[in-house]
Amino acid sequence: MGGDKSYAEHIPVLRDAFIDALFTDPDGYYVDCTFGRGGHSRELLAKLSENGRLLAIDRDPEAIAEGERLAEEDGRFSIVHADFARLGEALDEKGWHQVTGVGFDLGVSSPQVDNAERGFSFQKNGPLDMRMDSSSGQPLSQMLERVSERELADIIYRFGDERYSRRIAKSILNAKHEGKLNSTSDLENACFHATPKQARHGGAHPATRTFQALRIWVNEEMDQIDVGVNAAMEHLKPGGRLAVISFHSGEDRRIRDLIEAQVHPCKCPPQMPMCVCGKIPSMRWLQKKPVRPSDAEVAINPRSRSSLMRIAERISEAEGRKLAGYSGGSL
Ligand SMILES: C[S@@+](CC[C@H](N)C(=O)[O-])C[C@H]1O[C@@H](n2cnc3c(N)ncnc32)[C@H](O)[C@@H]1O
Fold first, then answer.
1. Three-state SS letters, 177-214
2. Most buried one in 49, 63, 185, 306, CB count within 10 A?
3. Which residues take part in binding S-adenosyl-L-methionine (predicted)?
């Protein structure tokens, strides 16, 4: 399947755990919101019957080209070029009002990082781009034209958990003003020299967290997660599953809070003897703690090292009412 060399090289993260969490029905309708090179999609298709269907989404035109090849081979599969914040619209267009499972494997794919021209990697020299959808939006070079030092430091701190965010932001903007910020190597250099000498070696490369933060910013990834994960939960049928893989503690916290808001939606003060806000749970955790890769998986697929997966299930309105302590009738 798929003659793309990058597919052969790409091992999907948490492959078995992701499929086990999502898959409940061979005749079900599923959505893979982050097709990439289709590693997870192909695993799901292998489990579907002739009646089952899989819709994939990706914002990257190169991922779409690979998905279109797969759609030609397999009539149960289709793909749309969109960001997953448009999941609700994509489902409406298909006429799929309720689905059996929705999966997300966030971040960038190996082929995106490996292609220097995309500008995601500090290990390969390339343009300051970092857009997952290179056909729309603004590349990093343009985004840096209109950001203040303070805003940039906040971005690097919030999306990268980078303790030297202020020094790094200053160094990046100084390099820009001197005309010395024209490539990913220049950006890497600015991060490296802004990091105190004693912190430059030993752990991750000093540019790792800043590159991650800038990618999240350029692609508005946090807003995408809010809209996409909420739309996924809304469109699940009772018993339908949600699985979200992330690679960064800030993303994981965001996903946990979005799901938790549906698991425990009650806003009544704790001193109230019973709930009066009328908010009924619509999801339940399949596992309260995030799923992590085993040591064996990390040994085979080092990219999975920092992955965390949140898994939850949609519950029926009757189950939600029962959990909230309502016996029946209207609230
Ligand atoms: C980690 S890769 C997915 C790999 C995939 N599970 C596989 O096994 O090949 C993430 C993919 O999601 C896409 N992506 C990330 N954020 C997206 C968003 N907000 N909307 C649509 N696609 C997105 C990226 O373009 C990339 O192709």
1. HCCCCCCHHHHHHHHHHHCCHHHCCCCCCCCHHHHHHH
2. 63
3. 38-40, 58, 84, 105, 112
Instruction: Report the nearest atom of ligand 1 relative to the CA of 60.
Output: 25
Q: Domains of the chain, with CATH numbers?
A: 5-110+221-324 (3.40.50.150), 134-218 (1.10.150.170)
Consecutive H or E run containing 29: strand 29-32
CA 211, 214, 218: angle at the middle one, nearest 5? 135
* Pocket residue to mutate for ligand 1, from 13, 54, 132, 221, most atoms within 8 A of Cβ: 132
User: Tokens in use for 160?
Assistant: 């990268």
Nearest C-alpha neighbor of 153 from the set 106, 77, 214: 214
User: Which residue's alpha carbon is at the smallest distance from atom 8 of ligand 1?
Assistant: 39
What is the DSSP pairing of strand 283-285 with strand 308-314? antiparallel
The type of residue at 190 is A
